[in-house]
C-alpha cells in the first residue's frame, strides 16, 4: 500500500510540474467513494454489478474561472458479480486498478461551484482474483485498461480555501479486459461511483 501511494503522488507531482507555468491556479483534492462495477460485451450484454470502493488524489489546473484541466490518481476496485454473463453462478471477480484520468473540467453556476468533466483514462491492473478460487488470476487479464471518464459534482466552502465536494463519476472502457487467448469473449469495464472529499 505504501508503494501504491508513492506512485500516486509521483504521477500527480509530475502533472503539477508540467503545467505549473501555464496555470492560473492549482487546486488539490483527496476523496473516497463507493463503486458499482460491471462488464459488458459487444452484444451489449452485461453482468451484475459488484460493489467496491475507491480512494483518490487529484490536481486541478485552472486556466480561467470556467475551465481547468483535472488529473486524478485513483485506487479503483472494479470487477463484476455472478460470473460472466450468467455463467459460473455465485463467483465474484475482483480487479483492482490504479486509474489515471485526465479531464477537461467545466465550472458553472453563479459561484462556479458546480463542475462537469470528461476525458480519457488509463488503468493499470494491480491485482485480479475471484471468490471460490485460490491464487491470482492476473495472467488472464490485460495489464492496462483504457476508456472515457466523466463526472459531475458540486463544491461547498467549509473554510478559507477548503471545500467539501460531492460528485458522481463514471468510466466506460473501450479496451478488452481479457488477455489474448484467455477467453472467446471481449469484455469492457463499466464503473460508476459516488464520491466525497475535500479540495484545498
TrEMBL record:
Residues 20-178 form the Outer membrane protein beta-barrel domain. The keyword Signal applies. Keywords: Signal. The keyword Signal applies. Residues 1-20 form the signal peptide. This is Outer membrane protein with beta-barrel domain. The lineage of its organism: Bacteria, Pseudomonadati, Bacteroidota, Sphingobacteriia, Sphingobacteriales.
Amino acid at each position: 500500500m505504501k508503494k501504491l501511494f508513492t506512485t500516486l503522488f509521483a504521477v500527480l507531482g509530475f502533472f503539477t510540474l508540467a503545467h505549473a507555468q501555464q496555470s492560473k491556479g492549482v487546486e488539490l483534492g483527496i476523496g473516497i467513494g463507493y463503486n458499482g462495477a460491471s462488464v459488458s460485451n459487444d452484444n451489449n450484454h452485461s453482468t451484475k454489478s459488484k460493489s467496491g470502493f475507491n480512494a483518490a488524489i487529484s490536481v486541478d489546473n485552472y486556466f480561467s474561472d470556467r475551465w481547468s484541466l483535472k488529473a486524478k490518481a485513483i485506487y479503483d476496485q472494479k470487477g463484476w458479480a455472478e460470473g460472466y454473463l450468467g455463467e459460473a453462478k455465485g463467483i465474484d471477480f475482483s480487479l483492482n486498478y490504479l486509474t489515471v484520468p485526465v479531464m477537461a473540467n467545466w465550472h458553472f453556476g453563479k459561484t462556479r461551484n458546480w463542475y462537469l468533466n470528461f476525458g480519457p483514462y488509463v488503468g493499470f491492473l494491480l491485482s485480479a482474483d475471484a471468490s471460490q478460487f485460490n491464487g491470482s488470476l492476473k495472467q488472464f487479464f490485460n495489464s492496462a485498461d483504457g476508456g472515457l471518464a466523466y463526472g459531475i459534482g458540486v463544491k461547498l466552502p467549509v473554510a478559507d480555501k477548503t471545500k467539501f465536494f460531492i460528485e458522481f463519476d463514471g468510466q466506460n472502457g473501450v479496451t478488452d479486459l481479457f488477455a489474448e487467448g484467455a477467453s472467446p469473449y471481449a469484455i469492457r469495464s463499466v464503473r460508476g461511483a459516488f464520491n466525497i472529499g475535500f479540495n484545498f
